[in-house]
Amino acid sequence: MSKLVIGLTGGIGSGKTTVADIFCEYGIDIIDADIVAREVVEPGTPALNQIAEYFGFDFILADGSLDRTQLRHKVFASETDKAWLNALLHPLIRHAMAEQCKTAKSPYCFLVAPLLIENSINKTVEKVLVVDVKPETQISRTVSRDNNTAAQVQKILDAQVSREERLAHADYVINNDDCSIEELKAQVEVLHREFLKLVVG
After folding, report:
1. I want to staple 142 with a disulfide (CB 3.0 to 4.6 A). Which of 2, 13, 20, 69 is the partner?
2. What does the DSSP assignment read for 158-188?
3. What global pTM score does this model have?
4. Is residue 201 part of a domain?
């Protein structure tokens, strides 16, 4: 089991996945909330069956998997639907993440969650690392990456905590604005050494 669990977060389009991938190159275990969230609704799971019963089978694709895009649009448009879905999935996701943290083998591990602060997951980790970028960077990156409109991305930003609030919870910050991959790797290397010191110390 890892001696230190660090929460890794950042707003949409901040580059969390890229940062996690670089830490992964050092042999650090990554528990990703997005991956866990997909696992708990895989075909045949009780959660997927409950979603189909509640929202209708239109939300299930031909291969039996969840139509995540359609569901995302649906819950963004309805607070009631969003609350129902969160009540179903959040406990399942938290339990699965906790189990994966327990089995992590690297000296320290990351729990990567876009909504680390919003869902109070930061209270379950020892340290918080925030990948920080300007809101305009988030919008331009996400528009080009996901084929969303700027208005759609702004809606997602509005649903997340503000940049200022996220930074207020940070023990460590990686700046990923106008950052080359080499500069990003350099920041990761410094933090990797720091985290190893914390574990050994």
Report:
1. 13
2. HHSPPHHHHHHT-SEEEE-TT--HHHHHHHH
3. 0.85
4. no
